Amino acid sequence: MLYNTFSNFLKNKYGGKVWKISIDAGFTCPNRDGYKGFGGCTYCNVKSFSNINEKDISKQVSDRIKFLEKRKIKNFIVYFQSYSNTYGPIDMIKRKIEASLVDERIVAIYVGTRPDCIDEDKIKYFKELSEKIDVVLEYGLQSIHNTTLEIINRGSTFEEFDFALKLTKSYGLPVCAHIIFGLPGENRDMMFETVKYLADNKIDFIKFHHLHVVKGTKMHKEFLNGDIKLLSENEYIDILANSISMLPNETVIARVVGDAPKDLLVAPHWPENKSEFLNKLNNYMIQNNLYQGKFINENNN
Asked: Which residues lie in coiled coils (predicted)?
């Protein structure tokens, strides 16, 4: 096996197919509502926030499970995906998380958020919850370089991610990091430095994304002005394959390429087909003798 895929991880952990149910719990973002800034990250399409209560959350999950039952899916992960799902008072977070636990076949909760929306009280709650159900915290890192984070108006720093990562892992909770390749001003070495940091800190899960330009963003205007240069598919595969080879064998590769809604996507228009992309990645890794853990193993010899 070239790398530790998410599907293999789920099969080994839960003994069969597990379906991830993505929900919108109505959280906002401190980089949009004025607490840290307005407008959000330059690559992010700003939409109005939904006023979603606990009953809405329970219904989202239960309706999706009813649909998936027809496909004979037996286990489910609830994924709090939209925006920053730990942004707010701890009591509200608890209510929204626990409102999603509507079925005994839910085996895990995955919570997507920003690292600057985490503190010890919230981690203590997730640790307590993990005694009953698996919990994974997903933090958007994007890059370890603060100069890059400033360019994309991230509104948070590498140091905040580092704090959140170490705090979360100190309580024995697994972390998934999101990173983006091809951000403005970054070269290959800078991208590899981000991956090396995560490898050195034994990240549990990682999601790789390539930079998208979508409508309604500041980056869209920059792209039209010729200020944004995007990676080609071949360039991305080369960086991705070498990055995977830098990671410990235990790290789960939860995603190798991102996507965006076609009605919002400006560029790039690859991959046209994810199966074809995976074949290209696998072939590239085989041809170049690359595989997860290779560079770690070579350094230890």
From this structure: none
